[in-house]
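Appendix B. One record, verbatim.
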Amino acid sequence: MYRLDCAIWELTLACNMNCKHCGSSAGKARKDELSLDECYELCKEFADEGCNLVTLMGGEPFVRKDWNQISWCIKDLGMDLGYVTNALLVPNIIEDLILLEPLVVGISLDGVKETHDSIRIEGSFDAVIKALDLLEEAGIQITIITTLSKTNFKELRKIKEIIQNRKINWQLQIGLPFGNFDPALTLSLEEFYASAMFITAEGIKNKFREMPVVGAHCYGYYSHLLPNNKNWKGCTAGINTVGITSDGSIVGCLSMGNNKFIEGNVRDRSFSDIWNDPNSFAYNRQFTRDNLGENCVNCFYGETCKGGCNSSSLHLTHTFHNNPYCFKQIEENLFEVKPYRKEIKWLKEKGVKI
């Protein structure tokens, strides 16, 4: 059986922004979002499955009026609590957050003031800075989340200057062509690799980890040149993580498209029944090398990596287990880096020309 570690919950699809890269195309609440009692029951089932962390997101989670009650239910059941927010409402709820003591609050920051506001709404950059001040003063752990595109790719160092004196974490992720995101703004392979080099350089410079900079699951995998990129064990959707839409649908990962690959709905079947069904999340739980796409089928690490991030793979190639945004592949195809001897031997045994 599979043990649930982390649940990512789209508490509502309602949002007080309309961001240009929003994969959910958030704005209005779904017609039939879960009631408070249904949310309580879902929280109990998370706990029954041994879940360690429930992260509430949206839309904008703090737009939902009963977010506080749901949060306390999660805490009272012994699970850690996290949020992903655009920061606009943080000043209004800071006292509630102090009492709740979340494990982390993720705040989106997508560039310098002009860029960030152009992606979101006017005044949103100032709201982020105010929220950072309040959360830091309260001693609440913060992770800045930056979604990279051609719009803000060249601003990484400027973003660093904005946040470098704060005791926070910084996560980079790439914008993918779904929802509101303009496909023309997707990073090229070279730009993607350059952003990975930035992460690596900052990791080396900040060896005391005052401001860790990390890549999300869309970063990887098995680089010949970049250190610390050999730990990826495949997409975690349906293995130890799960996504929940605001109307109770269960998906492996909300970033795959929150209205796709639905395994069931908690109004029809209990969450535990869906999670423990051996036929659920088949694209990951029943994975074999035969499922690898053309980008990954001849890769030495294919069975371990499983084709990288499935969200990236799906939105870039329209299939799972086929992510082209792969360090190893980029290095070999664009930079003519040769595979390791053990890989060359394996490829020759398979009859692959190298």
